[in-house]
Q: What sequence folds into this?
C-alpha cells in the first residue's frame, strides 16, 4: 500500500498530503513536489499526441532508491501522487490504477460538497477515510 | 550544468596537455625570485601557443597543432604512491579553491522564466570551474595512463653561475637520477629518454651580457642549437620607475592556483582544517548552546587566520613591495619568454614527440600489434600461460592485472596518449580502440576503462560527423572506475568530462543522471558541486524542471554545508527557496527558511538569519509544537548572541492585530465611590456597537443644537472617547493635556508554544505644533510601572493594556507608537530578547473611485496620532440613592452631583436622555420643598387636608411653559451656571418608573463646555447608562360617558357638561411578597378644557385600597372649565384639579407631579401624532377619496362633539415590605381620555397591534356612502321624563294616557336637524308583545332643528291599554347636521330601557 498520498491543485500547491511515517513528512513533501516536474513533462508530452483523449493515469513517474512515485492527473489538472515503497513488489499497475480511481471518486465527492470552497485544502473525513484505507497500516 | 567560460572543446583539450618539468639551479631560482615567482610560474602565462605548430604522423602526413598549451611544473619528488582517492592536502586545496571562489555581489544573475516561476540566479558557477581545473591539475599520475607523465625537462641555469656548463651537467644528472634511480615513484616520465632542454637564464641587470652570450655559444655547441636557449630577462631594476604600469598576467594564474606555493598551503591547510572541524561541529550541533561555543571557535579562528595572512604578507613584502608579480620584467621580457616557449615547443618538444610516436609506431608495427592481440586472445582461449608479464608481487587487485611499465600492451596506449596530446585525434582514437580491446581481453579493467575514456574523448575531439560520440564508452568507463577499480578520482574525472560533453550536445537529462550518480558519501564537496551542476542541468532542459532544480539545489546545499562550504550552502538554499516560496509547501518552506537562517547566522549575516526565521514564525506553520519551539529558540538566539547591531529589533511575535487597537482618551473611571455611583461614561470594557454609537451621536447632536440656539454647527463632530476599527478615524483625535491616553493592543500568538511577554511599554514620539519641519523629534520612552509578565496562551488572543502616556507639553502630536516587547520562552528563561513592534494601522479599504476598486488602497487612520490641546474642563457626575428597580410610574427622588475635577471652569451644563419622561430636575418655579413631604420622605409636595372630607376638587391653573423644555434637552439648573475648578454641586433628581414593565436601558448624555471660548474642543460630553427594572404596579382604565341626567338637574352646569368619568384601577403587581397593597391617594386631572369636578361615591370609605389582584372602580364627574380660562388659547394653560381620597392633598401642579405629567404628555402627543399620521397615510392609500371629503367635516363635527381631552393623573402609594421594614412608595399614572365613550388605559402595550396592516391584493369595495358610525350617535342626547309608576283604574277608563317629556339636547356645535319617529315598530320579536299593549298618541313624527347647544323639550303622550311594565324607550331619533344634503339618520338613543310601571287601581 501507499506510504504517501498527495493531492496537488492545478496551481501546484498541496491540497492534501498524508504520509505514513509522519516523522519523515518533509522528505515526502520534497518528493511529491519534485515529482510535479515529471507530471508536467508527461502531460505536455501526452497532450500533443492524443489531444483530448488523455489517459488520466500517468504511470510510474520515477523511482527513487526507496520509493516509487505514481501520478494521475484529472481533467481539471488536479494531480494525485501516490508514493509506494520500492520493496513492495506485490503492487501491480492495475492496483495502483484502481487506487487512483478510488481517490478520484472520493475527490469528486469532496468537490461536490457545496460547503467546500474550491482551492481550499481538503478537510473531509470521508476523504481521509478513503486515503487511510489505501495507506500502509502501521501497527 | 552551468555555463562555463571555456568551450567544451577547449576544456577537454586543455584537460590533457603535454607536461614539462623544470629543474632550476639555485642561482637561477634566485634570479626568478626577484619577480616573486619561480621559474615554472614565470612561464605559466605564456604556456599557450598562439601560433600553429606542425607535426608529421607516422604516415608522414602533416598534422597541424593549433592552440597548444603546455604545462610547466617544477620538478618535485615525493615518495607517495598513487592512490585511488585524493590526498587530504589535495582535498584541502580543492576545498579552499571552492571556498575562495564566491559569487560576487554584483554578479550577473539571469532570470529564468519557467512556467509561472521566475527564478533569479547566476548561470555561471566559477567555483565549479575552479574546482574542476584544480582537480584535473592535481590528478596524480597513474601507471595505466601516460597523459600526465612528464615529456620533457627544462634545465635552467643562471648566467651568473661561475661555470654554467657544470651546473647544466649537475642538473642533467639530477634529472637522470630522479627518473631512473627508482627512488621516486611520483614524478612519472613518459619515456625513458626524456627530452632535456637547456636554458640559460640571463639577468640583464646583474650579469655580463657578453659572457652569457659566450656561454650560450658553448651550449649550442654542446647540446645543439635546438636543445638550448638563452633567456634574457629582468631588464629593469626593481627600484626604477615603479609607476610604470606593466600588465600582470600572473595574477589570474596564481591567485587561484597556489599549488606550488608550499608555505601558503601549509598555512591555509592548518587553518582551514580547523575551520572545517569547527564547522562540522556546527552543522551537526542542534543545540543553541553548542552553537555558541562553535561561534566562539569561529571567531578565534578567523582572528588566527587574519594573523597568518598578515604574517605571510609581511614576509613577502620586502621582495615585492607592490605585491605584484614580475616587477622586474618589461614588456619586452614578456615577449622574450613567449618566444622562448614557442622555440622550445616547436623546436624541442614537438619534434621530440614526433620522433617518439614514430618509434612507438615502428615498434608496434614490428610486433604486429594487431595480430598480437589476437594471439593473446587465443592464448587465453586455450588456457595457455596467462598474463605473461604480470608482476607477482602485485596483490591480486580488484581491478584486474597490472602491467609493468614496459609492457607491450602499454606501448600502444602510450602512443595514443602522445597522439592525443598533439591533437592527432584520429590516430589516437584508433590506438585507444585497439588498446581497449587488448585490455578487455586481458581483463585489465583499469587499463580498459582508461582506454575507453580516452577513446570517447578523442572521438569527441575529432569533431565533425566522422564518428558519433560514444557515450556508452564513458558510462562503462565510469562504472568500471567506480565499481570495479574503486577509484573515485578517475571516475570523477571521467564524469566531469562526460557531463560536459553531454551538456554540449544538449543531453541535459543524461548529464544530470550522470552527475547525480557520482554523488557519494566519501566526498561531500564533490557531491555538492555535482548536485548543483545537476540542478543546473534540470533548469537548462528544454522544458525546465524547476522543482527538480530546486530539490537538487537543496540536496547540494545540504552537502555543501556538510563540507563546510557554508556560503555556498546558503546560496543553494536561497536559490531553491525561490521555487518553494509562497506556494503552499509550508513544510518544505519552513525547512529551507530554517536552514537559511542558521547558515546566515553562522556566516554572521544575522539580518538575513532574522528575516528567514521571521518567515517561519509569521507563517501559520503546521509544524509541531516542539519544532516551533526549536524555531523560536533559534530565532531568539540570534538576537541573544548580540551579533545584531540594531538596538531594538523588530520582533515578529506575537502578532499584533493593529486594526484592533483601541485608543481611549481620558482617565479610567471609578464606577462607585462609597454611596456615590459614578457615571458610566465610556470604558474599554464596552464593546463597540454601531447602533449605540449612532444613538449617542444623535443625543450629542441634540445637545449641541440646543447649545447653539437650535442649529447644529457645520463642523460638528461627535465626541469619540474610545477609538477602534469601526469608529471614524479620519481626523486626528483630540486629546487634552495632562489627561492619559490609553492604548489597547491586541496580540495573537500563532505558535503552539507559549510566549511570555514582560516589561511592555509604549514608545512614542511627539512633535511640537504638529508641523513636521523645524521641530525637535525626540524619542522618549516611558517604561510602564505595571511590568507584569503576561503569558500569552496557546493560540489565544490576549489583550494587554495599560500604557499610560503623559505628555508634558501642550500642542504635541504623538506620532508613532511602538511597542517594546520583552520576549521569553518559558522553557529557557535565559532566552530573552528585547525588541519592538511597530503599530501601523491601515485605514479602511477605499472603495469610491475606480482606482480604489482596482487596487487595494487604504485610507488614513489617525487613531494613534492625537493632537494635544490645552486644558479643558473635566466633569465627573455621581448619582446618589439611585434606584435600580422601580414600579411602573413610581416616583423616586435621587441626587446627582456634578464635580469639576479639572483646573478650568465649566459651564453650559445640559443633559439629554433617551427616556425624557424618566427623570426631572424639577422646574425652578415650583421646586421648594414643603415641610411635610420632607417628613414623610415623600417626593410630592403635599398639603394636609381638613378633616371634613369634601368630594369637591381643588383647582389650580398652571401654564405649560413653566414645565416644558423646548426639546428633550434639559438645562441643568446649577447655581450661577458655572462650575468652578474643584467645585461640586448636588441637585435633586426625581425619577419616575417607566410605564412599561421590563428592563429599560436609559442613557444620559451630559454636556458641558469650557467657560473660555474658542478652543479646539468646543464641548465635552459624559455618558451615563443605567438599567432600570420596572415592575408592574397598577393598571388604570378610564372611560367617560355622558350622564343621562337631564341638564336641568345639575343646576350649576349647563348643556352637555355632565360627563361621568369611570376609572377602573387594578392591582396587577405580581410580586405578592413585596407589595402589600396600593392606596389610591389622589386622582387629579389636567386638561385645557375639562376638569374633574366631583368624586361620586362619597358614602363609602374614601381611601381606596387595593390588595393583590384587586380591582376597584372610581367614579367622577367631570365638567368643562370656565370659558374665560379655557378660551385663552394663546397661552396654553392647564387646569389641574386635585381630588384627594386620603387625608392629605398633593399639589399636582408642582414638581414633580406636574413635571412628569408634562413630560409624559409631550411624549404621548408625539406618539399619538405619529400614530395618526400613520393611520391617515394608510387610509389615504386605500382610496375612496370622494366619500372622504364629504364625510370629513361631518366627522369633525362629530368629533368635536365627543371630544374630551381629559388627562387623569392617579397618584398612589404602595406599601411595600422589604427586609421586614415597611416602605411606602409613591407613584403616579397617567391616562389620557380623548373621547367620550372610548376607553383609555395606562397600559399602552396593545397599541402595537395597529401597526400591522394586512396586505390586500384585492381592492376593497368602496365603503358605504353613509357612515352609520358611532360618532353620530352622540350628536343628540335624549332624555325621557315621566312618572315612574302610574296607577290607573282600567276598569273605569280603558285607556291610560301618560305624559312623557322628551328632552333633546344638541351636544354638537353645529345646527342639527332631528327627526323623531314614534310610529316605528321594532322588529325585534321580544318587544312585539310589549308594543302591542302601548302606543304613542298625538303627533307621532317631529321634524326639528336644533341650534348648537340647544336644549328642547317635547311633550309626548303614551297610551296604555292594560297594566304592566313597559319600556318607553321606543322613540327613534334621527339626526344629521343641517348643512348635510343627505340625511344620515342615525338612532341617537342607546337602547337603555325606560321602564314605566302601570298598575291597575
A:
Amino acid at each position: 500500500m501507499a506510504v504517501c498520498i498527495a493531492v496537488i491543485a492545478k496551481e501546484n500547491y498541496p491540497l492534501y498530503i498524508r504520509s505514513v511515517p509522519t516523522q519523515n513528512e518533509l522528505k515526502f513533501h520534497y518528493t511529491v513536489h519534485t515529482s510535479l516536474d515529471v507530471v508536467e513533462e508527461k502531460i505536455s508530452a501526452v497532450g500533443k499526441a492524443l489531444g483530448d483523449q488523455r489517459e488520466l493515469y500517468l504511470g510510474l513517474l520515477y523511482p527513487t532508491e526507496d520509493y516509487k512515485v505514481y501520478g494521475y492527473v484529472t481533467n481539471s489538472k488536479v494531480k494525485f501522487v501516490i508514493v509506494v515503497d520500492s520493496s513492495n513488489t506485490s503492487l501491480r499497475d492495475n492496483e495502483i490504477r484502481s487506487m487512483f480511481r478510488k481517490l478520484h471518486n472520493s475527490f469528486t465527492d469532496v468537490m461536490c460538497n457545496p460547503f467546500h470552497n474550491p482551492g481550499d485544502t481538503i478537510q473531509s473525513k470521508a476523504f481521509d477515510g478513503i486515503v487511510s484505507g489505501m495507506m500502509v497500516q502501521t501497527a | 550544468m552551468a555555463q562555463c567560460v571555456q568551450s567544451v572543446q577547449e576544456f577537454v583539450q586543455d584537460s590533457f596537455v603535454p607536461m614539462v618539468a623544470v629543474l632550476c639551479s639555485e642561482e637561477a631560482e634566485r634570479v626568478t625570485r626577484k619577480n616573486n615567482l619561480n621559474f615554472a610560474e614565470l612561464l605559466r602565462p605564456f604556456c599557450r601557443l598562439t601560433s600553429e605548430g606542425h607535426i608529421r604522423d607516422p604516415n608522414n602526413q602533416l598534422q597541424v597543432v593549433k592552440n597548444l598549451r603546455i604545462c610547466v611544473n617544477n620538478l618535485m619528488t615525493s615518495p607517495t604512491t598513487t592512490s585511488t582517492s585524493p590526498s587530504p592536502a589535495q582535498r584541502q586545496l580543492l576545498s579552499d579553491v571552492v571556498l575562495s571562489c564566491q559569487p560576487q555581489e554584483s554578479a550577473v544573475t539571469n532570470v529564468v522564466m519557467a512556467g509561472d516561476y521566475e527564478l533569479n540566479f547566476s548561470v555561471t558557477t566559477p567555483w565549479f570551474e575552479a574546482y574542476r581545473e584544480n582537480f584535473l591539475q592535481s590528478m596524480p599520475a597513474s601507471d595505466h595512463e601516460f597523459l600526465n607523465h612528464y615529456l620533457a625537462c627544462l634545465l635552467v641555469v643562471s648566467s651568473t653561475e661561475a661555470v654554467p656548463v657544470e651546473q647544466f651537467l649537475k642538473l642533467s644528472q639530477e634529472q637522470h637520477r630522479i627518473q631512473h634511480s627508482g627512488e621516486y615513484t611520483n614524478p612519472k616520465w613518459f619515456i625513458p629518454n626524456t627530452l632535456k632542454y637547456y636554458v640559460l637564464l640571463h639577468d640583464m641587470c646583474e650579469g655580463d651580457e657578453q659572457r652569457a652570450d659566450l656561454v650560450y655559444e658553448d651550449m649550442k655547441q654542446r647540446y645543439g642549437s635546438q636543445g638550448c636557449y638563452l633567456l634574457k630577462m629582468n631588464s629593469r631594476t626593481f627600484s626604477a620607475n615603479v609607476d610604470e604600469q606593466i600588465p600582470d598576467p600572473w595574477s589570474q594564474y596564481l591567485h587561484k592556483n597556489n599549488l606550488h606555493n608550499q608555505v601558503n598551503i601549509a598555512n591555509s591547510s592548518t587553518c582551514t582544517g580547523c575551520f572545517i572541524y569547527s564547522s562540522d561541529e556546527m552543522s551537526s550541533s542542534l543545540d543553541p548552546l553548542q552553537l555558541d561555543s562553535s561561534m566562539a571557535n569561529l571567531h578565534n579562528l578567523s582572528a588566527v587566520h587574519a594573523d597568518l595572512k598578515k604574517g605571510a604578507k609581511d614576509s613577502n613584502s620586502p621582495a615585492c613591495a607592490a605585491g605584484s608579480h614580475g616587477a622586474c620584467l618589461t614588456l619586452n621580457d614578456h615577449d622574450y619568454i613567449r618566444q622562448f616557449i614557442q622555440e622550445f615547443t616547436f623546436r624541442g618538444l614537438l619534434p621530440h614527440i614526433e620522433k617518439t610516436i614514430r618509434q612507438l609506431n615502428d615498434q608496434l608495427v614490428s610486433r604486429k600489434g594487431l595480430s598480437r592481440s589476437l594471439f593473446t586472445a587465443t592464448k587465453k582461449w586455450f588456457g595457455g600461460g596467462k598474463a605473461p608479464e604480470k608482476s607477482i608481487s602485485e596483490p591480486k587487485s580488484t581491478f584486474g592485472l597490472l602491467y609493468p611499465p614496459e609492457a607491450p600492451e602499454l606501448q600502444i596506449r602510450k602512443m595514443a596518449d602522445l597522439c592525443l596530446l598533439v591533437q592527432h585525434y584520429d590516430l589516437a582514437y584508433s590506438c585507444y580502440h585497439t588498446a581497449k580491446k587488448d585490455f578487455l581481453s586481458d581483463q585489465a579493467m583499469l587499463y580498459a576503462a582508461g582506454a575507453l575514456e580516452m577513446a570517447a574523448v578523442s572521438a569527441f575531439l575529432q569533431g565533425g560527423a566522422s564518428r558519433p560520440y560514444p557515450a556508452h564508452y564513458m558510462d562503462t568507463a565510469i562504472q568500471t572506475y567506480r565499481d570495479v577499480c574503486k577509484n573515485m578520482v578517475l571516475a570523477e574525472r571521467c564524469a566531469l568530462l562526460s557531463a560536459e560533453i553531454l551538456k554540449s550536445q544538449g543531453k541535459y537529462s543524461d548529464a544530470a543522471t550522470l552527475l547525480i550518480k557520482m554523488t557519494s558519501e566519501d566526498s561531500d564537496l564533490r557531491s555538492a558541486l555535482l548536485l548543483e551542476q545537476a540542478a543546473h542541468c534540470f533548469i537548462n532542459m528544454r522544458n525546465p524542471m524547476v522543482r527538480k532544480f530546486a530539490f537538487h539545489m537543496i540536496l547540494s546545499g545540504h552537502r555543501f554545508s556538510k563540507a563546510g562550504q557554508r556560503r555556498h550552502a546558503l546560496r543553494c538554499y536561497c536559490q531553491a527557496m525561490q521555487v518553494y516560496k509562497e506556494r503552499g509547501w509550508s513544510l518544505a518552506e519552513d525547512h529551507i527558511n530554517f536552514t537559511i537562517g542558521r547558515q546566515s547566522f553562522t556566516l554572521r549575516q544575522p539580518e538575513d538569519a532574522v528575516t528567514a526565521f521571521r518567515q517561519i514564525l509569521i507563517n501559520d506553520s503546521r509544524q509541531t509544537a516542539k519544532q516551533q519551539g526549536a524555531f523560536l529558540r533559534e530565532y531568539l538566539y540570534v538576537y541573544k548572541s548580540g551579533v545584531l547591531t540594531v538596538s531594538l529589533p523588530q520582533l515578529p511575535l506575537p502578532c499584533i492585530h493593529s486594526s484592533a487597537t483601541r485608543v481611549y482618551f481620558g482617565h479610567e473611571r471609578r464606577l462607585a465611590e462609597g454611596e456615590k455611583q459614578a457615571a458610566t461614561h465610556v470604558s474599554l470594557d464596552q464593546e463597540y456597537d454601531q447602533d449605540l454609537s449612532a444613538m449617542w451621536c444623535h443625543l450629542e447632536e441634540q445637545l449641541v443644537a440646543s447649545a447653539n440656539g437650535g442649529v447644529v454647527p457645520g463642523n460638528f463632530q461627535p465626541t469619540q472617547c474610545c477609538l477602534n476599527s469601526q469608529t471614524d478615524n479620519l481626523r486626528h483625535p483630540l486629546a487634552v493635556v495632562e489627561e492619559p491616553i490609553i492604548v489597547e493592543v491586541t496580540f495573537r500568538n500563532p505558535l503552539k508554544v507559549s510566549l511570555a511577554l514582560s516589561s511592555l511599554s509604549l514608545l512614542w514620539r511627539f512633535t511640537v505644533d504638529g508641523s513636521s519641519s523645524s521641530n525637535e523629534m525626540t524619542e522618549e520612552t516611558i517604561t510602564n510601572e505595571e511590568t507584569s509578565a503576561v503569558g500569552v496562551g496557546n493560540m489565544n488572543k490576549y489583550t494587554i493594556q495599560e500604557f499610560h502616556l503623559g505628555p508634558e507639553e501642550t500642542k504635541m502630536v504623538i506620532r508613532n507608537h511602538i511597542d517594546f516587547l520583552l520576549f521569553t520562552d518559558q522553557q529557557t528563561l535565559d532566552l530573552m530578547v528585547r525588541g519592538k513592534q511597530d503599530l501601523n494601522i491601515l485605514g479602511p479599504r477605499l472603495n469610491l473611485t475606480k482606482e480604489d476598486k482596482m487596487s487595494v488602497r487604504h485610507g488614513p487612520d489617525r487613531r494613534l496620532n492625537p493632537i494635544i490641546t490645552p486644558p479643558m474642563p473635566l466633569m465627573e457626575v455621581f448619582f446618589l440613592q439611585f434606584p435600580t428597580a422601580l414600579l411602573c410610574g413610581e416616583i423616586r427622588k435621587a441626587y446627582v452631583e456634578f464635580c469639576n475635577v479639572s483646573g478650568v471652569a465649566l459651564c453650559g451644563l445640559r443633559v439629554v436622555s433617551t427616556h425624557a419622561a424618566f427623570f426631572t430636575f424639577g422646574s425652578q418655579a415650583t421646586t421648594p420643598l414643603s415641610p411635610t413631604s420632607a417628613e414623610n420622605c415623600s417626593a410630592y409636595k403635599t398639603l394636609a387636608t381638613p378633616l371634613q372630607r369634601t368630594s369637591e376638587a381643588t383647582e389650580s391653573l398652571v401654564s405649560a411653559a413653566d414645565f416644558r423644555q423646548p426639546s428633550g434637552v434639559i438645562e441643568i439648573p446649577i447655581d450661577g451656571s458655572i462650575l468652578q475648578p474643584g467645585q461640586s454641586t448636588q441637585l435633586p433628581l426625581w425619577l419616575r418608573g417607566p410605564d412599561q414593565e421590563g428592563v429599560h436601558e436609559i442613557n444620559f448624555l451630559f454636556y458641558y463646555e469650557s467657560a473660555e471660548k474658542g478652543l479646539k474642543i468646543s464641548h465635552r460630553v459624559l455618558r451615563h447608562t443605567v438599567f432600570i427594572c420596572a415592575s408592574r404596579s397598577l393598571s388604570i382604565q378610564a372611560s367617560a360617558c355622558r350622564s343621562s341626567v337631564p341638564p336641568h338637574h345639575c343646576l350649576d352646569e349647563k348643556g352637555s357638561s355632565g360627563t361621568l368619568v369611570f376609572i377602573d384601577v387594578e392591582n396587577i403587581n405580581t410580586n405578592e411578597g413585596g407589595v402589600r397593597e396600593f392606596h389610591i391617594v389622589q386622582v387629579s386631572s389636567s386638561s385645557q378644557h375639562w376638569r374633574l369636578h366631583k368624586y361620586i361615591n362619597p358614602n363609602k370609605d374614601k381611601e381606596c385600597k387595593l390588595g393583590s389582584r384587586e380591582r376597584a372602580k372610581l367614579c367622577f364627574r367631570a365638567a368643562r372649565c370656565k370659558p374665560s380660562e379655557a378660551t385663552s388659547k394663546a397661552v396654553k394653560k392647564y387646569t389641574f384639579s386635585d381630588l384627594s381620597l386620603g387625608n392629605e392633598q398633593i399639589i399636582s401642579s408642582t414638581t414633580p407631579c406636574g413635571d412628569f405629567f408634562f413630560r409624559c404628555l409631550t411624549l404621548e402627543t408625539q406618539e399619538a401624532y405619529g400614530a395618526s399620521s400613520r393611520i391617515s397615510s394608510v387610509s389615504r392609500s386605500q382610496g375612496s377619496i370622494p366619500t372622504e371629503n364629504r364625510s370629513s367635516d361631518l366627522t369633525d363635527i362629530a368629533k368635536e362633539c365627543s371630544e374630551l381631552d381629559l388627562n387623569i393623573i392617579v397618584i398612589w402609594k404602595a406599601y411595600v415590605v422589604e427586609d421586614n421594614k415597611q416602605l411606602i412608595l409613591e407613584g403616579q399614572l397617567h391616562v389620557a381620555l380623548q373621547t367620550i365613550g372610548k376607553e383609555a388605559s395606562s397600559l399602552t402595550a396593545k397599541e402595537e397591534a395597529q401597526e400591522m396592516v394586512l396586505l390586500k391584493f384585492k381592492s376593497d369595495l368602496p365603503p358605504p356612502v353613509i357612515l352609520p358610525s358611532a360618532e353620530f350617535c352622540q350628536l343628540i342626547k335624549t332624555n325621557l321624563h315621566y312618572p315612574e309608576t302610574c296607577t290607573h283604574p282600567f276598569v273605569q277608563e280603558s285607556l291610560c294616557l301618560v305624559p312623557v317629556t322628551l328632552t333633546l339636547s344638541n351636544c354638537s356645535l353645529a345646527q342639527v336637524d332631528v327627526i323623531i319617529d314614534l310610529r316605528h315598530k321594532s322588529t325585534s320579536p321580544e318587544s312585539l308583545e310589549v308594543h302591542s299593549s302601548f302606543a304613542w298618541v298625538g303627533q307621532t313624527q317631529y321634524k326639528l332643528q336644533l341650534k348648537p347647544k340647544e336644549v328642547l323639550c317635547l311633550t309626548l303622550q303614551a297610551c296604555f291599554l292594560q297594566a304592566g311594565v313597559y319600556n318607553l324607550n321606543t322613540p327613534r331619533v334621527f339626526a344629521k347636521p343641517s348643512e348635510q344634503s343627505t340625511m344620515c339618520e342615525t338612532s341617537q338613543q342607546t337602547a337603555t330601557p325606560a321602564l314605566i310601571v302601570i298598575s291597575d287601581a
